[in-house]
Design a protein that fits this description.
Elements: E1 57-64, E2 68-69, E3 76-80, H1 83-92, E4 97-103, E5 115-120, E6 127-128, E7 136-143, E8 164-165, E9 168-169, E10 171-174, H2 207-217, H3 222-226, E11 243-249, E12 256-262, E13 265-267, H4 286-298, H5 309-317, E14 322-327, E15 332-337, E16 339-340, E17 345-346, E18 361-362, E19 377-379, H6 380-392, E20 396-401, E21 409-410, E22 413-414, E23 418-425, E24 435-439, H7 458-461, H8 463-469, E25 478-482, H9 483-489, E26 490-496, H10 500-504
Antiparallel strand pairs: 1-7, 2-6, 3-5, 4-5, 4-7, 8-9, 10-13, 11-12, 14-15, 14-26, 15-18, 15-19, 16-17, 20-23, 20-26, 21-22, 23-24, 24-25
Helix pairs in contact: 2-5
Length: 505
């Protein structure tokens, strides 16, 4: 099992790649692999509630002490007036309001002394705390896209109910789209117009996995390839209970294996929210099920709590040619990987990245980009040129920040965190600006300094660059940096040296 296994070495690459000519060999957009339908998103996504079917709205009341929690600060209208008017407003305009709260006893007061609170539908994650106290009543407008969860007969998979995380048993799993507060939207789907922004990290430390998946999602058909053994996946989910098959690769045999999961998603131990990643803002669930399948394939949620993007790409694509390029501290990058130069064999691996070989060996550089033996190093400018060549070859990339806690940030860049490298552009719009577009798998949190952040002066100073890059002013985790800024904050670059067109075939 040596270097002769060239599944990820491009065929017919005869050009001489050097830092001098890569810049002049860049492929045009139409010459590269087709990007996914949503990859060119230029505006923040908003749920189109006008497509909601009126008969699918359900209004449920609960009582409690009046407390609530939320993900983002909710917008709440305090209204003085009859509570019955508030109920009518909620039921006539549920696309604008997700609920109303009032003091329970107040409903018997004179109407001119009544008041209530209307919670606007802003995606805040507002959640009323139900309890034994009946001091306050909350009426919630729920959209039920599919048959209610307690009215279906599910054949459970053998994994979901027994899974745990960090030695804690998980809460009761949730059925998306079935009235339990997860993906209860009119356009729920497994796969739609796929975009890297479809991934929103949950409470598991698997940014390495989600960044790797996000990088794949740039390419039209890549995610559908993972679901290739799920019949009619683009027409799912349906009212009947669902199961999905995700095809991954076994690290001992390097053969594809099918992981079948049921529709339920794991919840945190206290049941307050999803444990893993969340459905996309436009109601796509593919990322949730790919993550769940990888967790099962690896041996549980704890086995994907921390890892490397390169291992994720092995599991997802079956490609052995995974590279880690590390800044050695002198602004030069070294090429590392799992091929042992002494034995001339690949190190043995397990499906869990926490098991099997943990070290890295110096490796020959990929042919695309210039090549070089395992002793070679390259400076920052040359590294950028190589990244441009890899981008043109339809390879996927990610980047890691300096070691540290992900509770610490520098100019908005999170320590100890993996980001997706979406694209590399040189001499943008005929200028001398070299830019790199990256994404935080948290789905929020961006670079807050420099010329090319969302509010940076570069876009106004160079409108032709803005016209090419089409930056979106939204806290969606996607942002641009100059190549100098990129190498300042990102000390490691990860590469899957497989042309995505070959994977998708």
């Amino acid at each position: 099992m040596g270097q002769q296994l060239g599944c990820c070495v491009p065929q017919g690459v005869n050009d001489v790649f050097t830092s001098l000519n890569i810049r002049f060999m860049r492929k045009k957009k139409e010459e590269k692999a087709l990007r996914s339908a949503g990859a060119e998103l230029s505006e923040p996504f908003a749920i189109d509630w006008t497509k909601a079917r009126p008969e699918n709205w359900k209004f449920e009341s609960s009582t409690g002490p009046g407390s609530y929690f939320f993900k983002f600060e909710p917008e709440i209208d305090d209204v003085k007036g009859p509570i019955s008017d508030g109920e009518k407003k909620l039921k006539s305009r549920p696309e604008n309001y997700e609920g109303m709260m009032y003091q329970t006893s107040m409903k018997d007061w004179p109407s001119d002394q009544q008041s209530y609170k209307l919670v606007k539908r802003t995606g805040s994650g507002y959640s009323f705390t139900a309890g034994q106290s009946e001091n306050f009543t909350y009426v919630q407008a729920k959209y039920q896209a599919l048959e209610r969860y307690d009215r279906i007969s599910l054949d459970p998979d053998p994994y979901t109910d027994s899974m745990s995380f960090r030695r804690q048993r998980l809460g009761k799993p949730c059925h998306p789209g079935r009235g339990q507060g997860i993906c209860d939207v009119p356009h729920i789907k497994i796969i739609g117009e796929i975009h890297p922004n479809d991934i929103i990290q949950g409470s598991v430390g698997d940014c390495w996995l989600l960044s790797a998946i996000s990088a794949l999602s740039e390419f039209e058909g890549a995610i559908a390839t993972l679901f290739r053994n799920t019949r009619y996946v683009k027409d799912l989910p349906k009212n009947s209970p669902q199961k999905y098959t995700i095809t991954l690769y076994d690290m001992k045999t390097w053969q594809p294996v099918d992981i079948e999961v049921d529709e339920r998603l794991c919840m945190k131990p206290d049941g307050s929210d999803l444990l893993g990643c969340h459905p996309s803002y436009d109601g796509e669930l593919w990322a949730c099920y790919v993550e769940k399948a990888v967790a099962i394939h690896s041996g549980g949620w704890d086995e994907i709590d921390g890892g490397q993007c390169t291992h994720a790409w092995r599991l997802l694509t079956g490609c052995k040619y995974q590279y880690t390029f590390m800044n050695t501290g002198d602004d030069e990058f070294q090429c590392l990987g799992k091929f042992n130069p002494n034995s001339q064999e690949w190190d043995p691996l397990e499906n869990s990245g926490h098991k099997g070989s943990q070290g890295l060996w110096p490796m020959d550089w990929p042919v695309v980009g210039g090549g070089g033996d395992k002793r070679a190093k390259c400076g920052l400018n040359e590294m950028f040129e190589r990244m441009c060549a890899w981008d043109d070859q339809n390879y996927v990339m990610a980047a890691g920040t300096k070691a540290g806690s992900d509770t610490n940030t520098t100019d908005g860049i999170v320590d100890g965190h993996a980001y997706t490298v979406i694209t590399c552009l040189n001499d943008v719009a005929g200028t001398e600006h070299d830019l790199i577009k990256v994404r935080n798998p948290w789905g929020k949190g961006e670079f807050t300094s420099g010329q090319w952040c969302d509010d940076g002066p570069g876009w106004a100073d160079y409108p032709q660059v803005k016209n090419v890059c089409k930056p979106t002013k939204a806290n969606d985790g996607v942002f641009w940096l100059s190549k100098e800024e990129f190498f300042k904050y990102f000390r490691t670059v990860y590469l899957c040296a497989q042309d995505m067109t070959a994977f998708i075939k």
